[in-house]
Structure formats: C-alpha cells, structure tokens
Fold these 3 entries.
Entry 1:
Amino acid sequence: MSNITLRDISKALNISVSTVSRALTDSHEIGEETKKLVLAYAKEHNYVPNRMARSLKVGKTKSIGVVICSIDNSFVAQMLDGIDQICTESGYQIIIMQSKESYEQEKACINLLYASGVDGIMISPSFQTTDFSHLKELQSQGFPVVLFDRITEELNVHKVTANNIQGAYQATAHLISSGYTKIAHLSSKSTLAMTHERFEGYKQALAAHQVSYQEELVKFCNTSDPQKVDENVAKAMNELLKLQPQAIFTATDLLSTKVLAYLNEHNYSIPEDISLIGFSNSDLAPILNPSLSTVRQPSKQIGELAAQTLINLVKGKDIGPAETILLDTELQIRKSSSR
C-alpha cells in the first residue's frame, strides 16, 4: 500500500488537513469541487487511510471484501451464494468487486476494499495475475486474506478450492474408457495452480491407462482479455482440429461453452465426429446442443468454507497454520462425450 498521508495531500493541494479528511469521508461540510479534487489526487497516488487509526475510532466494520473475476458466471454466482449465506448467518456484510481478469483492476479492488475498512478479504485471483506482492503486503501486516477457487503457491494463506487433479483425471479417464486415445486438452494460459493441476490430472490419466502423451494436442489459450476470447479460442481450435483429435477435454467453464459453440458453428457432429467434456457448473449444460458432459465443482461449498475460514481469522480464532482444503469434484456424463 502507498505511504502517502493526509498531510501530503494537504500540502500538494494547498488546503488544510481537516478539509482533506472531510473530503475523503464525503462530509456535507465540503463543496463538491473540493471533494472531486481531493478524491482524484488520492486515487492517482493510491492513498490508503491509516487503518490502525481508523480502528481505534470505529473498531471492526463487520464487513468482508470479496474479489472475483466476473459475476456473470454460474460457477462464481454459486460460490457467492455460499459466501453470502455464511456471512449473513455470522452478521457480516459482503462487498463484492470484479477484477474482470485484469491484474491492475484486481490491485485497485484490493486497495479500495482495504481503504474502506473491511475486516478481511477473500479473493479468487485474475488470470493475468502473476505478481502477488499486493496480497503479500496485506499478509505481512497481519491482515486476514483467504484464497478461494483459484489459488497459488506464492502465498502462505488459507485456501479453499476443488480437487482439480482429481476432476481432470476423471474427465480424461472417462474419455479413455469410451474408447478414445487421441485426446486434446485446451486450457487457459495462466500461472495459477488450477491450470497446472488440471493439466497434471490429464497427463496422469493418460499414463495410468497407457495412452501416450502428445504435446501437440495441448493448447493454452489466453482468456484474460474478454474482447479477444473468441478469436483466441478459434485460433487454438483451428490448430487442434488439424491434428484430428477424437475428443477434447476443456479445463474451464468459459472454454467448455466456447468450444461447444465453435464445433457447432463449424458443423461438427458431437460426439460422432468429436467428443467433448469440460469443467463447468453451468445450469445450461444439460440443455445445450448436445447436452454437455462436465466435471462439476462443489462451488457453494467452496464459498461457504472460504467465508467461514476468513470470519474465524477476523475473530482471532486459532485455526492452525495456513492450509489448502481440496473438495471433491463430480463427473456428470451427458451426450457430448457418449458414443
């Protein structure tokens, strides 16, 4: 967090410290033009209030910050439902912010939540995030942070996620048991543990069933820019389909539906021409054309456990050293992967 102070802002704008303080708290005593001037300068210079001084005045806020990639996602919505349930039962309100898969926006979300006085933060990092220093700094101050769904080994904090290796193994083994041996894997390009674990589960299933691994059948697609997702998926699919795979295992909810749409648009008959299975918690999976085989994650349970863990930390309970909780996935077989 930035070290800029109220006095620094006061000096830069040539106004009193008390005026700066009142402007930042939206006091009715301060004119709108002055508020805009102060807020713009504070935002530009990443001003963060002194949390220790604030806590001496107002104590705990009974609020939790939640940072997610995007709210327009069935899986995320289900996790948020679990988070909301636990927080409501415990008397905490939640403030939800979206990174939109942007590292810079993720940092801005964290700064704003911290400045607003939340008691702790839960975060599912963006696909762009490779530098976790903004979270490490919070951790170094003893501020409660919990990772959920998307996790990383870069941070030694409590984490809750699905057993990604297990889920990927289940999906790949299902395709092999259906008679397929030339199985492609499409995943998002990311340094997050989820990407590596699902890739690892795919490879483990191939090895366990004596199916040779072919590097050219694996593609990592950039999905961090919403404006270019369709273009990047099309490029990856064009390259994969030239190799004539018998089946495709997609590693994210977004990729599962994008690939299904691509195959339908290009007149592939599924599963006759090519089979498809992916990670997806979409309630639309059973009614897609064809119905989509998926690895379903315990989304609501992830949200519930992560929220309860963070609330316990906020309350100062001794819950032991940082640990990673892995929850079992469920294989749901539908028409897209059934011969």
Note: Residues 164-297+330-337 form a domain with the Rossmann fold fold (CATH 3.40.50.2300).
Entry 2:
Amino acid sequence: MNLKIKYALLFVLFIAVLTDNRVTAQSKPAGGQKYDIAAFLYPAYVNDDPRLRPFWPKGIGEWETVTSVQDRFPGFYWNRRPTWGTINEADPAVMSMEINEATKHGVNVFIFDWYWYDGRPFMETTLDNGFLKADNNNKMKFYLMWANHDVVNTWDTRLNKFNENNVIWQGRVSRDEFEKIAKRTIEKYFKQPNYYKINGKPVYMIYDIPQFINGLGGIEQATAALKWFKEETKRAGFPGLELQLTMWGINLNYSGFDGSKTTRPENDFVKKLGFTSSTHYQFAHFVNVNDDYLNILNNVKKEWDHIDATFDIPYYPHISVGWDNSPRTGQSAVVKNNTPDNFEKGLRMAKAYVDAHPKQAPLITINSWNEWTETSYLQPDNVNGYGYLNAIKNVFVDGK
C-alpha cells in the first residue's frame, strides 16, 4: 500500500475514534465507562467517630435513627432494613465491598458530603479511614461537596421532636477560616490520584451560598475569596478549579446584587461569584416532592429546560431516588411511586440530557448512595433489594 494512503487511512480512523467518543477532551470517565454516574455519599454511618456521639450516643452514627424508628413511632409505616446490615462505612474493608458493588452497577464516582464546624472537620472518617484506605479505591473517583449549612436538632432523635431548630453549629466561616479549609482541601484531597476532575480541574461543590456570602461579609468579599481559591488551586499545579454550584432557589438569592441592567440576574450573579458548573443535590430543593414520581420527573425536565435557557455555565443533570425524612421526625412530604422502574426512567432522561450536551463532561449526579433517613438511597434493602442499583446497571452498563 502506498505510504501516503496508509497514513491517510490511519488519520481517518483516528478521527473516527475521536468522533465516536463523546467525552473527548472534556472528561475521562471514571473506570473507563462512557458516563460518570456520581452518587452523593452521606458520611454518618460509622462506628468510630467520637464527634458523632452527641447526636447518636450508641456509637453507630445515624444507623441509630434508622434502627429505632419503630421504637420511637410504634406501628409507623417506615420499616426499612439494610441488606448489608448496619455497616461501618469508615472501615476500609466495608468500603472496598461498597466500591465493588457500586462500580459493578455503574456508579463510578462518590460525592462526599463534607463538613467543617467549630474550627475543624466533621464526619470525615468515612472518607479518610474508609474510602481512601480501601484497597480498591483506584476503581472509583470522588469529589467533595462542602455541606456548609447550620447544624440544628434534626440529627438528634431525642430533641428533634420538639421542633426547636436550635443552632448547634453555624455553617458560615470567616475569610481566615475559609483559607484554612481551602488549603487543606487542595493538599489533602485534590492531590489524590482519584480525585474527580473536569479538563484537569478538581471539582468542588458548595452547598449553601447565602451562608458562604454571609460568613465572608458580602458578595464582593465572597467573590474575592473564591477567586483566591482558584488561584491557590493553580499554584498547586492544576489548570484551575471547577467550582460547582448546588442549584436551588436559596442559592440564587441575589439580594444585594445589582441586577437592574440584565435580563438574567441569576446567571450574572452565579458568574460573578465564579461558578463554572452546576448540579442539584435533591429534588426536594426545587419541585414539590409530595407527588407521584412520574409527575416529579416532568417538572424536573421543565426545570432543566429553564436552566438551559437562563444560565451560561454547564448544568449536570440530577436524579433523586426519592424523599421521605420521617425516620427523623415522624412526619414528611413523601415521594410516591418511586419504583426502580420509574427511577430508571429518570436515569434515561438524564442520559438523554447528557447526550444532547456532548461538549460537556458526561456527568450525572444521584441522590444518593446512602441517605437512609431521607429515604433516598441506592443501597439494597428489604423493600426493593438491588432494584435501584440494577436500574443504573441497565442504563449505563448493560445498555438495555
């Protein structure tokens, strides 16, 4: 074969491979699969974290809330039981099992809820002692969502029935405290080889923007602090920071921001702060969840269309398993008909959204891996077995 023709054919083949790969330069999917399925992980199910004892004195974290429902509310309808038992997720052997089960079913990223109160980290043992010490954590990526909300009596089943909402710890931090958090995060987590990145930039999600702004002293101060965080990330050797917004109404409250010269003040507010992408954390943040799951999905689709029309930054689609936080308080709005089959319909909706946005990373977020007391979890139980995990596997692994 003529050498020029041979090289020409090789070039065509190379271009075809690139064209067929929707991810291209945007993101290298974790574990080699085509989509990045990222489940939020709530790190309260541990046996060896002394800072959790004031809320759950038995020493098993929020499993205490899960296992005591019938004692606190005799005859109550909520009676879920974990197939894996009340596991200690800060045990690396347990986390190794979870990583195997997650990745086998198509969940290849964990988004760890991460907390900082009273000048130090809180509920960090699941990540530090469990995930990062698991012998197979190279199979899975992770990133952080800073859950910077106040802590009230919700977690403590002895007190939450009084509905007093006393603030135990404030989520807001000063500039000095924020710099301490940011530097620690860069060194301790961003530099982990399996930290999730988009275009080489570590992804970092912030939960409560009003708390952040109030702690820093205003929008201008918050903007300056986030700009500094990006510069620090670059100084650490990364091309930048993928700063991810938790998209919900409270975070788009631009009070004090001059939006009089724009028709899209929410977009300008988010861009001013320096956010470069967004996703949701829970359906409960933006739709009426006291409804049928299929009706909720219709409203979610409308919200995605609104986001596409309003914001310039990429939005990564979010699907929640459900919502019912009555295990904590005995009362709640409740998602109805959120069967694994209907959850799978939501996943297909998210997949279609990703496919329609091929220039952005193939990221889909899910609430959640283990939010048992909010009844929004993928882990197997006595009601649906492995149904929710199998739904992910059907769509993103088996391609059914």
Note: The beta strands are 36-41, 109-117, 120-122, 141-146, 197-198, 201-206, 242-246, 277-279, 318-320, 363-367.
Entry 3:
Amino acid sequence: MKFTKTVSFLAVALGVALVATEAQPAQAKTTSHAVPKTIQGTWYGKYHDDLFGNVPVKYRLTKYSFRQGSSKKSEQKEARTYYVNVKKYNSTKSRSFLFNVANKANKHGYWKLTLLSENQPVYLKHVKHNGKTALKMYYKSADTNKVQTSYFYHK
C-alpha cells in the first residue's frame, strides 16, 4: 500500500512538472521586450501618405514607449503614444495603445514592432543614409499592399 502511494505521488509530481515546463515556453513567446537602444531617440522625417502626400513627422522611441506625431509645433497636441506590452502598461492602458517588440532583430537587422490592435508590423533599423545616421522604417501598406520605406534623422 505504501509503495503504491509513493508511486502515485511520484507520477502526479512528474505530471505537474511536465505541465509546468510545457506552459513556460508558451508564456515566454507572448512576452514583449524593451525597445532596443540602437533605435531609441527622437527621429524626424517625412511619412508618405497617398491621401496627404509627404507629411512631416516626429518619432520618439524610449525604452518602453513609441510616440508618433507631427513635427509641426501647431499639430504636436495630436501626437499618440504607444506603450510596450509589459506588465507595467498592459493592466493600465487600452489594447489599442500597446505594442510588442521582437526579442531579437531579424536576419536583415530590422526590429519588428507590432501594434496589438492592428497586428500590422513595422520594421525599424539603425542605418547610415546619405552620410547621416538614420532610422529606416518599412512596412506593408494595408491600402495598397505595397512596401513603404521611409528614413528618419536626428536634428
């Protein structure tokens, strides 16, 4: 009787251990990471929009946020701030203002940022363009299904 209780206990403990180890990788895949230092900073450039043409924009990337708005002083009140989907923000912010950051750059050196509400990724990379340090951004346009590429610079 004692032997069967011990075997039963060990079987249950082993089963719980297996379930716990299987659950951890799934949870790890859903966690987001901080914005990498290589793309952090304030970046200025023009965003091409089929409706409005070239629109001057300002991006501010910090460790846990991404602020997007116009570089015109008169329109800076309309800037939007998005937050990395980490514990600090995912309980206090709306899902439409949260994004995930990939755990590493892809094979071409781009960091993938994905808004949770849109599920449309933006790829960012720190590059040299026209002899200046730049932030290269590309994404696939939802309207035209074409890849859009833009460069943003420090002032």
Note: The first strand starts at residue 41 and ends at 49.
